[in-house]
Design brief:
Length: 504
């Protein structure tokens, strides 16, 4: 037999060198020996636990029942884990609690006294990981249950395992009804026959056609109806099993909207074609006889001037003016119809040079002063369209200024991503109630017998500016003049609608 002193020393060495927290208690629950690892775990100084009841290491709320547990173990001592099916907690010296696992082993001394050696593990980190996992699973479960899109899970053989509520509503089956059946039951022909072959091909070769890419396919509902859907598939491995999760979105409404949009585009294309034909008819079939009427009126007014009295001469003047107005109206309609339909190559336009040409072509009457802000920017656009914008705004100001000392100023200001241009006059001004109306086609404020106007100019300006993603408006008050403003993008590019229309 070994010398008891050597055995005791060996036990001391074993406990002292162990990394696990260990202690030995006697039959009365007093601590005989606590190793350094246990003292560190519970926050005690070396040697201070010896002789204290083991209950000092247990939270206060559990201490009253611990004596009965010790007595029960003393009657049936055996190596075992403590607290099976229950959570155990240790009490740190500072009062905080932490979860532990305890293993018990009986020891016998020479006097046949039963002692118990306990090994204690702090499982705080494991409990935290378990809680984090549970929270993660709860979040995933919440996503799975509440997702708007359908989520379907299958194994590598294509066997259905999970359907979320959205998938049940989409396909008309409950999860229990489809579990264990092949995913192909949710596919119409010919996709149904091809699916198993595709899956087997992927498993054999790794060639992906849907997995990780997504595509548009068709689904089959329980009632036999077929619908278009977007499908994205992800692959994962769970416990050594290859699984596939499909995210499905019913795109029936999107398809219907696209079909409606296509139909509308076809109708717009047809309308554009009709507009083109109308413009051709106006250009050739109306202007030709109108020119004849104008020529005849001029001939009558010249050759028969001595035959007309004052009233007759006034009638002839009105006839000639209205023929000219009709010609201008036809030209305005043609210009309006071409905007967005007839495309001119866009390029850099020096507005200093363009405005000089516009003012020169306008030839403002004597006494009317037109000034242009120096140092205007160079912008990107169709030169003809920009000329039409400034020409119509300047012409509008000249027509309605109504005074011999009139002043018109063309200016520019930085407006972030846009340039803001203005054409201001000191004319009679415009009442606010007319601000929207004047930009509508064929709308004029003054009687046409007093001011020759087709009512197309401002509508044409609005259409061109909005085609380039800008906006146009007027600021005015009666008697305070009027300022017409519009914005033009600094970056090149017309609106998507305009680009599409320009190719019609």
């Amino acid at each position: 037999m070994k010398n008891p002193t050597i055995a005791e020393q060996s036990l001391d060495w074993l406990l002292a060198s162990a990394t696990d927290a260990m202690l030995i208690i006697d039959g009365d629950g007093a601590i005989l020996l606590a190793n350094p690892a246990l003292e560190r775990l519970f926050g005690y100084d070396p040697g201070t636990l010896q002789g204290q009841p083991v209950e000092v290491l247990i939270p206060q709320r559990y201490r009253h029942g611990h004596g009965a547990l010790r007595a029960d173990y003393a009657r049936h001592p055996r190596p075992r884990a403590m607290g099976a099916g229950a959570e155990l907690h240790g009490a740190h010296r500072d009062g905080r609690e932490f979860p532990v696992e305890v293993s018990l082993s009986p020891l016998r001394s020479d006097g046949a006294q039963t002692m118990v050696m306990a090994t204690i593990h702090d499982i705080s980190a494991r409990k935290a990981a378990e809680r984090a996992l549970q929270e993660s699973e709860a979040r995933m479960r919440a996503v799975f249950e509440t997702a708007v899109d359908a989520i379907i899970t299958i194994d590598e053989r294509g066997i259905l395992e999970r359907l979320n509520p959205a998938a049940e509503r989409m396909f008309g089956y409950t999860e229990a009804e489809v579990a264990g059946r092949n995913i192909s039951m949710l596919m119409p022909s010919p996709h149904r026959k091809l699916h198993d072959g595709y899956l087997a091909h992927y498993l054999a070769t790794g060639e992906k056609r849907i997995i990780g890419k997504g595509r548009e396919v068709r689904g089959l509902r329980r009632d036999g109806s077929v619908f278009p859907m977007d499908l994205a598939v992800a692959e994962m491995t769970l416990n050594g099993r290859r699984m596939f999760t499909g995210l499905v979105r019913d795109i029936t409404e999107r398809r219907q909207a696209e079909e409606k949009t296509l139909q509308l585009l076809q109708e717009v294309s047809s309308a554009n074609e009709e507009l083109t034909n109308f413009a051709y008819v106006v250009s050739h079939d109306l202007k030709a006889p109108l020119r004849g009427i104008g020529s005849l009126a001029d001939w009558l007014a010249t050759d028969y001037a001595d035959k007309f009295n004052d009233e007759g001469k006034e009638h002839m003047r009105l006839l000639i003016n209205r023929v000219h107005r009709m010609g201008a109206l036809i030209d305005g309609i043609l210009q309006y119809s071409r905007v967005g339909r007839v495309r001119e190559a866009a390029g850099a336009v020096d507005l200093n040079r363009l405005l000089a040409d516009v003012v020169d072509l306008q030839a403002p009457p004597a006494g009317l002063r037109v000034t242009v802000q120096p140092g205007l920017p160079t912008v990107v656009g169709e030169p003809t369209r920009l000329q039409q914008v400034f020409q119509n705004l300047l012409s509008n100001a000249v027509k309605y200024i109504g005074r011999t000392d009139g002043e018109i100023h063309i200016g520019c200001a930085d407006d972030g991503a846009f340039w803001r241009f203005s054409v201001a006059d000191n004319g009679p001004g415009i009442e606010p109630r007319h601000f929207e109306r004047i930009f509508q086609l064929f709308q004029t404020l003054a009687p046409r017998d007093r001011v020759e106007s087709t009512g197309v100019g401002l509508a044409l300006v609005k259409k061109i500016v909005e085609m380039y993603r800008g906006r146009v408006w007027v600021e005015s008050a009666p008697g305070a003049g009027a300022t017409f403003l519009f914005t033009w993008p600094k970056a090149a590019g017309r609106s998507h609608q305009a680009q599409g229309a320009s190719t019609a």
